[in-house]
Amino acid sequence: MIGLVDCNSFYVSCERVFQPRLRGLPVGVMSNNDGCVIALSPELKAIGITMGTPAFELQHLVRRGQIRLLSSNYELYGDMSARVQAVLEEFSAGVEPYSIDEMFVRFGGFTPDQLLEHARQLHVRVRQYTGIPVCVGVAPTHTLAKFANRAAKKIPAYRGVCVLQAGTAETKALLQRFELGDLWGVGRRLVERLAVIGIRTGWDLAQADPKRIRRQFSVTLERTALELRGISCIEMNDFHEPRQRIMTSRSFGKLTNNLGEIREAMRQHGQRGAEKLRSQGSLARAVLVFLKTNPFREDLPQYSPSVAVELPRPTDDSREILRAAGQALERIYRPHYLYQKGGVMLLDLIDADRQQLSLLDTPQSDADRQRSAKLMGVMDELNQRMGRGTVKLGTPSPGAAWHLRCANLTQRYSTRWDELPVANAR
Which residues belong to any copy of the UmuC domain (predicted)? Predict the structure, then answer.
């Protein structure tokens, strides 16, 4: 059996762990640069605010003290996610993170009654040890486990834990009750196309002919249909296929045409991309750099260039990637435009263990390759142990325009010694 543990309103819950006064209040967490709402508490949803609402439209509610909006604090959220995972690993050796707030958990060797009790204990322990509320869905397949988790979240009678068996009357009733769009991997357009052939519920999809589904739609939807029947078609490793390209980009805190500041931003993006490249064991053959002006500022001239630079050889060395990114930036930068966003994309990725040079690639000596690997390894280890950005190439200027706007950032309570929570006793 497979369990899916989903943290409820994860970003808001992380903030509430260290700020109990936020409990019961309408709270939202904003995107980078405090642009729009990306996480909402149930209280915020209840007053009609939806995901993606621009933050500036809510400022009148903030000024009246009716809602609280916070800047996203990813360092805190990442650490809390690791703590949730550590608790789950006490209940199962097979824990696979699916996202920062969702994790699949393997359950084996339990009778149905034992399994329900085990899932309920897990539900309580995660909240007790981390302060994060979760819902638990358990079923024979990943798709059914996701569906069971949704049922646990939406139906109060389950009290946060739902265990489903394939083909039972309970599973059939739930699949008929929820909308087709509630299923994992079934989007709005797919719902419309399925409705044309009379498939309107999850149960209809589970009973449909898989070969017909594959022929008319895709092999992915065929797998979904089979998984709803309890036939496992998705492995956990399917979620961890190396990415074919790595993009690192971000909007600048304010419009700028300062080449020095833009160069700093590209340097940070390039270094972050190289870290991701090494973590998945890949090498890049090319680097693409792009800039964008603000398309909504019609009063300003528009210019959104990009250019790709081929690397001398496949590499994961931050220095070579930054050198290529710098060359690309020099080629596309024009001083008379105000840029809103820029980024670095690593392209044509290959497996580092299966590297095969072409006739046009510049070879690298074994000594150089080993020095590069050691240097990058030490940098990654230090940044992992002591916090991202502890060791970096180039020092960003404080107050530069490309820095994120995060006026409502809370403390990184669990990862910074100088930001630990303070308790006052009377």
Answer: 2-187
Cα–Cα dist 268/179, whole Å: 43
**CA–CA dist 63, 67 (Å, integer):** 9
Least confident of 16-25, 306-315, 321-330: 306-315
- Is residue 306 one of the residues assigned to a domain? yes
Which H/E stretch holds residue 139? strand 134-139
Looking at the chain, the whole-number percentage of residues with pLDDT higher than 90 is 46
273 touches 317 (CB < 8 A): no
Average pLDDT over residues 216-233: 88
Q: Which neighbouring-strand residues pair with 106?
A: 2
Q: Are residues 90 and 15 part of one domain? A: yes
159 to 27, 40, 155, 198: CA distances (angstroms): 23, 21, 8, 33
Domain termination residue (choose one: 194, 214, 241): 241
Locate 15 and state its tokens.
């903030």
Q: Is pLDDT of 249 > 70? A: yes
